[in-house]
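residues and backbone:
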Amino acid sequence: MNCYIKFSISDDARFQDLKSVFEVVKDKKDFPQSDEFWLNVFPDYALQQFSFLEHDVKPSFKTADYNSPFTWHFYSLTELLSVNYEIEYADCFKLSENEGQLEYQPYSYPYGGITGLIVFIKAFNCVPTHIDDGTSLYTIDFLDNGDFSITDLIDPANQSSGDKLFSATKLLWQFAKRYNKR
């Protein structure tokens, strides 16, 4: 069974854009591409949500301010998605008219975290709601400041995503136990 992120869909055209870009990311995984390539793959409305450095190849329209909190640098995201994530992309599909799911399979744990995938999905105005990251099941709540928090649905004692540092050994053990149950 794959890990996944469920998300709400409010605009089918934006979901279709997400699916299309997902397929390109999946196809180009582990094959680095030029900055110009990625600029041409993402739709303008998604690019507007990212920041670009002064020396970056940039779109010809206004994008997010680099100094804004919780704004991602576009090429950091594309490098994470296409090269640095230790995952295999499986699928991106609709579960219903208003809900979709992006599935992936980690090669290892930790594989690069969920934040990049959440930012990627949200750039298409699809809102992540639930995650199975291979260690547990979580809900996602977006905060007014643009950040998000996750709530563990399996371990009631681990309810805040920011209270303490994670233990890589504990997470690897949880991942192995859940994987063996599949």
